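Allow me, if you will, to draw on your knowledge of protein folds for a short while. I have a record of one protein: its chain in single-letter code and its fold written as discrete structure tokens. I remain grateful for any guidance, and I place the record below:
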Amino acid sequence: MMKKEMIAMILAGGQGSRLKQLTKMIAKPAVPFGGKYRIIDFSLSNCSNSGIDTVGVLTQYQPLALNAHIGIGAPWDLDRRNGGVSLLPPYQSEDGGNWYNGTADAIFQNINYIDDFEPEYVIVLSGDHIYKMNYEKMLDYHKEKGSDVTIAVIEVPDDECSRFGIMNTREDYRIFEFEEKPKKPKNNLASMGVYIFNWQVLKKLLKEDNLDKQSSNDFGKNIIPKMLQNNQKLYAFPFKGYWRDVGTIDSFWSANMDLISDNNELDIHDDKWRIYTVNPMLPPQYIGPDASINNVLLNEGCTVYGEINNCVLFQGVHVGKNTKITNSVILPNTKIGNNVVIDKAIIGSNVTIRRDSYIGNGNDIIVIEEGAEIKANSKILTKL
């Protein structure tokens, strides 16, 4: 293998149980997002745009859709002879085999893969966050600080700090304390789940952690505290920009709605930092003569005869006559009949909603799972 300065390892095996019906049959990173993408497209595109051409994707829960989507990595220019993208599920070895027990264990089980490229640095990423970030700038910062690990952080509202790992730093951003989801945080610098490690330092820690039978084999719970205990150099990399953990129904819906907001910070139309994906081979969208569309992301293959306001529609969605859809996210290939009302809902892929049905109450977010068939004249007004 050709020696690489830095390779990326994307943790993409999570079940995403808080997304409920959306992840019954697919892993969270494979969930459709933003009208045309899947969640993992953002991490993969960040790698491609940052000049990282070697990426390992660690899969586990319901990997079929994710594997099919990534394929050989062509949309992200990762179909390379030397490097490219590799799908890395757990495997049986001479010593036995286990599922990935934690984030650190997932990297530990792939030490041989990483060693093949002899990298100086490894960037560990989550495959389920929505953001645009130049990892090359973060690597420059890491080198400048002479750090053993650099952790990207973002300021979050004080009332949300208890959801995240919080980094307490000195004025130069050197980390002296890590608090995992603290009830009374000392500041609001939250970990983004983006780590750059010196590979030889990390490899030694992973091997020690694997021998510790009391360890949870987790970066936040074990590896980072161990590094602090060892008085190693840990620095926070302050990130300014849009970042969302779309791990709940509320955050997933809100992040989709952000894309059609007047104050859209993510800007998926930025030609200088494109988000790449697998494009569907579908005909152009069709807007019927009596249709009404206002503030909508509308994708290929959609046919619209009704009224749509403040919505995100994925490819292949059909909307019937006299149907009204408001403040909703409609996932791919869903068919919605005539005289249907949908108000503040997430409708899964390949759903059929028959005529004269009513979904949503305008307050709670109603979720309809993938492949469901809603009979004519149905009323779904509360969460299932």
